[in-house]
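Table S2 (continued). Query chain:
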Amino acid sequence: MRRRDFVMLVAGAASWPGRLAAQTNGAVRAAFWQLFRPWGRAQASQEPTARALAALAEAMFPGDGLPGASELGIHRRVLEIAEFKAPIAAGIAWLDAYAARGGARDFASLDEAHRLAALDAAFASRDDGIQSFVLALRFHLGTAYYRDPRIKSAFAYTGPPQPDGFADFAAPPA
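Corresponding output:
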């Protein structure tokens, strides 16, 4: 439930019974109960998007010895970013159309090599901001992936080099 809907619900709670009884077409009753629809249905409608986003996450961050991004559920964290929902829908639609031109059902049904080819095509394309979508998705997925404790613990470096910095910064790499 969005905050705006909740505020409207609470603010008008005292007058709802009278309004509901006065309505003959049931539009207000339908709007009222729409606010309380089962959460499972909302999640079920997001499943194709989540499946495509999981395929994107796995293509970008497969793990290679560590858990992959989709195994960690990183795609679900990115899917929860409210201001990124519209670009996700547009980007997945573009990738699904690209996959359909190649004879596949959708992006998620492609194998790894074709997913990478689709991402390369999206990055090279100048269509409708698909390149900026791929870059923003890589940023959000990468940030969430490397912030995950299971991935962070796989690296020996755990903190900032301050206050001393790197003593050998001027030396050539060994």
